[in-house]
Write a structure and sequence with these properties.
Layout: E1 8-9, E2 14-15, H1 34-43
Antiparallel strand pairs: 1-2
Length: 44
């Protein structure tokens, strides 16, 4: 993935989007095992 500071424009707006993905697990249990984390890395 490349980093871009490009500001995009539309007909009536100017925007620069950033996305943050946060996983919150209830009771902090070990939900994400090593196998699941490897699969998520491949997907993203």
């Amino acid at each position: 993935m490349t980093k871009s500071n490009e500001i995009r424009t539309g007909r009536h707006c100017v925007y620069n989007l950033h996305v943050y993905l946060v996983f919150v697990t209830k009771y902090r249990r070990g939900v994400f095992t090593k196998e699941i984390l490897e699969d998520l890395r491949e997907i993203w």
